[in-house]
């Protein structure tokens, strides 16, 4: 999933290119939009928390859309989910207990189960309909939810974290937009609760937007996390359907350096590798300048 404050609506519209032409259009910023030709609408409901849409696209296969923001598609979701998980778990000294906040689609869980050292995985997403939709329409994304190590809890993650101090080795914040029920997941008080829920030497990762069109959002989220965690790092990678195609991942650490690789996933990855791991932490000067005051060297 992704963090995008500006997208609160979407359009499904016919376009006179060929007969019965139907398109999904996401307004990614006030001046930029993404359009995908869709062949069918598989699910379109209003949950207790957001508008949930599943469509079949001609270019990227099936797509999950929440409140008008494109969460992922069949053809490229792996770039995001692998980068949300493997730089963190491949560098943690001993990640036995992992929490995923949000991410009801199960993509991050699928990647976590590739680490044999992990003994318990908790997925906490407030919207049970997202979990159901992924199980129904995205079996390759949600397959990890059936692993015996996984506990799926459709509830408020803020409350869950506060109720579990010093419990987890790693926490992955895979939230939707910072509006309504998710707004508290991107501020310092939440990260203080996250730090309290981590064991000694714990680490957290959160996706933090495009470094090109969402620089203010990136710097704000990084700064908020940096007020809590003594060590801060940023890595980045490709995500074709997100604004500008480049995405960032902020890592807060209570000790370990996420640039140090300690293990590899036990199963196949399509984007992540040891070379990608190392390269993802190499930042261009404009990003370094944006984050300089809070970036660990």
TrEMBL record:
<dbReference type="InterPro" id="IPR001045">
    <property type="entry name" value="Spermi_synthase"/>
</dbReference>
<feature type="active site" description="Proton acceptor">
    <location>
        <position position="174"/>
    </location>
</feature>
<dbReference type="InterPro" id="IPR029063">
    <property type="entry name" value="SAM-dependent_MTases_sf"/>
</dbReference>
<comment type="function">
    <text>Catalyzes the irreversible transfer of a propylamine group from the amino donor S-adenosylmethioninamine (decarboxy-AdoMet) to putrescine (1,4-diaminobutane) to yield spermidine.</text>
</comment>
<dbReference type="GO" id="GO:0005829">
    <property type="term" value="C:cytosol"/>
</dbReference>
<feature type="binding site">
    <location>
        <position position="125"/>
    </location>
    <ligand>
        <name>S-methyl-5'-thioadenosine</name>
    </ligand>
</feature>
<dbReference type="Pfam" id="PF01564">
    <property type="entry name" value="Spermine_synth"/>
</dbReference>
<keyword id="KW-0745">Spermidine biosynthesis</keyword>
<dbReference type="GO" id="GO:0008295">
    <property type="term" value="P:spermidine biosynthetic process"/>
</dbReference>
<feature type="binding site">
    <location>
        <begin position="174"/>
        <end position="177"/>
    </location>
    <ligand>
        <name>spermidine</name>
    </ligand>
</feature>
<protein>
    <recommendedName>
        <fullName>Polyamine aminopropyltransferase</fullName>
        <ecNumber>2.5.1.16</ecNumber>
    </recommendedName>
</protein>
<feature type="binding site">
    <location>
        <position position="50"/>
    </location>
    <ligand>
        <name>S-methyl-5'-thioadenosine</name>
    </ligand>
</feature>
<dbReference type="InterPro" id="IPR030374">
    <property type="entry name" value="PABS"/>
</dbReference>
<dbReference type="Pfam" id="PF17284">
    <property type="entry name" value="Spermine_synt_N"/>
</dbReference>
<comment type="similarity">
    <text>Belongs to the spermidine/spermine synthase family.</text>
</comment>
<keyword id="KW-0620">Polyamine biosynthesis</keyword>
<dbReference type="GO" id="GO:0004766">
    <property type="term" value="F:spermidine synthase activity"/>
</dbReference>
<feature type="binding site">
    <location>
        <position position="81"/>
    </location>
    <ligand>
        <name>spermidine</name>
    </ligand>
</feature>
<comment type="subunit">
    <text>Homodimer or homotetramer.</text>
</comment>
<comment type="pathway">
    <text>Amine and polyamine biosynthesis; spermidine biosynthesis; spermidine from putrescine: step 1/1.</text>
</comment>
<keyword id="KW-0808">Transferase</keyword>
<dbReference type="InterPro" id="IPR030373">
    <property type="entry name" value="PABS_CS"/>
</dbReference>
<dbReference type="InterPro" id="IPR035246">
    <property type="entry name" value="Spermidine_synt_N"/>
</dbReference>
<feature type="domain" description="PABS">
    <location>
        <begin position="21"/>
        <end position="254"/>
    </location>
</feature>
<dbReference type="InterPro" id="IPR037163">
    <property type="entry name" value="Spermidine_synt_N_sf"/>
</dbReference>
<feature type="binding site">
    <location>
        <position position="105"/>
    </location>
    <ligand>
        <name>spermidine</name>
    </ligand>
</feature>
<feature type="binding site">
    <location>
        <begin position="156"/>
        <end position="157"/>
    </location>
    <ligand>
        <name>S-methyl-5'-thioadenosine</name>
    </ligand>
</feature>
């Amino acid at each position: 999933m992704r963090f995008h404050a500006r997208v609160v609506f979407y359009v499904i519209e016919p376009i006179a290119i060929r007969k019965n032409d139907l398109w999904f259009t996401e307004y990614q910023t006030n001046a930029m939009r993404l359009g995908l030709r869709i062949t069918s609408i598989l699910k379109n409901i209003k949950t207790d928390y957001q508008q949930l849409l599943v469509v079949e696209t001609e270019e990227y296969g099936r797509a999950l859309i929440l409140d008008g923001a494109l969460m992922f598609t069949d053809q490229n979701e792996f770039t995001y989910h692998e980068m949300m998980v493997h730089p963190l778990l491949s560098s943690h000294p001993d990640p036995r207990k992992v929490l995923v906040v949000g991410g009801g689609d199960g993509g991050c869980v699928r990647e976590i189960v590739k680490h044999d050292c992990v003994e318990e995985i908790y997925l906490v997403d407030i919207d049970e309909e997202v979990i159901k939709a992924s199980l129904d329409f995205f079996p390759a994304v949600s397959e990890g939810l059936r692993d015996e190590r996984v506990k799926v809890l459709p509830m408020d993650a803020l409350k869950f974290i506060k109720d579990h101090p010093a419990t987890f080795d790693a926490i992955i914040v895979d939230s939707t937009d910072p509006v309504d029920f998710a707004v508290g997941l991107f501020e310092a008080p939440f990260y203080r609760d996250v730090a309290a829920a981590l064991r000694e030497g714990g680490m957290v990762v959160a996706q933090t937007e495009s470094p090109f069109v969402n620089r203010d959002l990136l710097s704000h989220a990084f700064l908020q996390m940096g007020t809590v965690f003594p060590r801060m790092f940023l890595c980045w990678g490709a995500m074709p359907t997100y604004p500008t195609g480049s995405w960032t991942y902020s890592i807060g650490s209570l000790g370990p350096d996420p640039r140090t690789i300690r293990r590899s996933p036990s199963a196949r990855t399509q984007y992540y590798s040891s070379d990608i791991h190392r390269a993802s932490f190499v930042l261009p000067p404009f990003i370094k300048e944006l984050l300089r005051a809070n970036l660990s060297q």
